[in-house]
Design goal:
Blueprint lengths: L6 H11 L14 H9 L16 H14 L1
Length: about 70
C-alpha cells in the first residue's frame, strides 16, 4: 500500500471483511463499534497504544490470525 492506515481504519476494514458482529449505539463516533468489536473479542494487539497509531503489517497479521482462530 502507498499509505499507512490507522488502527481505527484497520478496525473497520477487518470488522467488515470478516463479518465481525458490531453494534451501533446512538450518539457514538463512527469508529467506536468497530474498535469495541475487536476489543470484546481480544483481537487488538498489545502494541496498539492509540486509536490513531499507524498499524504495521505484523500487527495486521496478528489481528487476522486472531479473527481466523475465533471463526
Amino acid at each position: 500500500p502507498e499509505k499507512n492506515i490507522t488502527f481505527i481504519e484497520s478496525a473497520k476494514l477487518l470488522s467488515i471483511h470478516y463479518d465481525i458482529p458490531i453494534k451501533h449505539e446512538r450518539g457514538e463516533l463512527w469508529y467506536e463499534p468497530y474498535v469495541r468489536a475487536l476489543g470484546d473479542n481480544s483481537i487488538i494487539p498489545g502494541t496498539i497504544d492509540s486509536l490513531t497509531t499507524f498499524v504495521t503489517r505484523g500487527e495486521t497479521v496478528l489481528m487476522i490470525n486472531s479473527i481466523l482462530q475465533m471463526q
